[in-house]
Amino acid sequence: MRRFGMVIKLKPDKVEEYKALHRNVWPEVLRTIKDCHIQNYTIFYKDGYLFSYYEYTGNNYEEDMKKMASDPVTQKWWALCKPCQEPLETRKEGEWWAEMEEVFHLD
Amino acid sequence: MRRFGMVIKLKPDKVEEYKALHRNVWPEVLRTIKDCHIQNYTIFYKDGYLFSYYEYTGNNYEEDMKKMASDPVTQKWWALCKPCQEPLETRKEGEWWAEMEEVFHLD
């Protein structure tokens, strides 16, 4: 199992819209996340920043992320979410949410 | 079980010191965390921000946090960590790390 911590900004005028969207995430989107071996997935918000934590239980993360990105319902969902977000300038090439560095873990 | 997402800043000149400390957290500190019913605890770093995720499995969080804060070894540990950190102005009264708002969860 591999843990991920990801960070992105929310546009100040889109905070409520983003929160409302996430109170009712579409079932197909949730099913695709599960199908891509993501579990224990939480998104937190504070002061303009979204932080997400999730665990990946598959054995080909890049393949699973491609699978997720190719799902048509997920694409429609992202078309609603992405305009709310403002990615970090310092994100790596190809990233939207920026991956954080794990500096400590205790089971 | 209750999930927590917490955020705090790291002073730019203390990033390496903080990371080094967390590569070798004292066993007594880890034991106290466990004794206080915290599990699956991860700290991530990106662009001056620390984000922590953990799960609380006890039934009196405030009591357990007081217990942790009263442990002498934990106090010595915090005396090393806190000077590396810069708490958010917007944190709530009594907070050091600022608690984030959970906006989404999928098991």
Structural notes for this entry:
Chain A has four helices and six strands. In chain A, strands 1, 2, 3, 4 and 5 form a five-stranded antiparallel β-sheet that branches. Chain A is globular, with a radius of gyration of 14 Å. With 107 residues, chain A is α+β, with helices and mostly antiparallel strands. The model of chain A has no long low-confidence stretch (mean pLDDT 98). The longest helix of chain A has 10 residues, at 72-81. The first copy, chain A, has helices spanning 15-23, 27-35, 61-69, 72-81, and strands spanning 2-10, 38-46, 49-56, 85-86, 98-99, 101-106. Chains A and B meet through strand 1, helix 1, helix 2, strand 2 and strand 3 of A and strand 1, helix 1, helix 2, strand 2 and strand 3 of B. Strand 6 of chain A pairs antiparallel with strand 2 (38-46) of chain B, so a sheet runs across the interface.
Compose a concise summary of this entry.
Chain A is 35% helix and 34% strand.
What distinguishing features does this structure have?
five-stranded antiparallel sheet, 34% strand, 107 residues, homodimer, alpha+beta, 35% helix, globular
Count the DSSP helices of chain A: 4
**What percentage of the residues of chain A does DSSP assign to strands (E)?**
25-35%
- Percent of residues in helices of chain A comes to 25-40%
Q: How many beta-strand segments of chain A?
A: 6
Average pLDDT number of chain A: 98
- Find the structural class of chain A using helix and strand composition: alpha+beta
Main beta sheet strand tally, sense and closure of chain A: 5 strands, antiparallel
Uncertain runs of chain A with pLDDT below 50, 5 residues or more? none
